[in-house]
Structures are given as C-alpha cells and as structure tokens.
Design a protein that fits this description.
With 92 residues, the chain is α+β, with helices and mostly antiparallel strands. The chain has one domain. Helices cover 26% and strands 30% of the residues. It has three helices and four strands. Strands 1, 2, 3 and 4 form a four-stranded antiparallel sheet that branches. The longest helix is centred in the first third of the chain and has 9 residues.
Length: 92
Amino acid sequence: MSRFRAIWPITNERLPFTALCAQATHDIPFLAAQAHARLTGPGRWSAALSAEVPGSGRITKWVLLYEAPAVQAPRRTNPTQATPIQQEETAA
C-alpha cells in the first residue's frame, strides 16, 4: 500500500498546531485528486524542519505534513474525446 503525503510551508509560527491543521484540511481532497490518489484510511499530521523534508522547497523554516494510506485512483478520461476505437468506427 502506498502513502499520500502533502506538505505546506508554515508561514505563521504563532498559530497553534490545531489551527494549522484545520486550515490545511480543506486542501487535502484537491491535492489527493491532483496526485491521482484515493485515501484509504485516516491520516497523521506532523510538523518538521523543512531542511529535513525532501520536496519541501525549504521556503520556510518549518513545514506541516499530512500522511495517509492511499491507493492510485483510476484516471478519468475526457468523455468528449473519442478513443482510437471510436475514431475508427466513425471513419468507416
């Protein structure tokens, strides 16, 4: 099983950890969809020094992390775009 990981830079270190998590929670469905991931269980929040987190970009000193078990979501196709088989059938 794979893991989904999202990273946010912490720009206001005075905010309580629970407030940071609450703000970031709204991004999770979009970020998971963008990563073609379907979350399969509850996640875990943590904070870490950005220098110790690969992919953080080191924009800020600290980053907020969310990690959850996930599987690859099926990729959606554009229903208005014809598949090669449909193109052959319409050409005949």
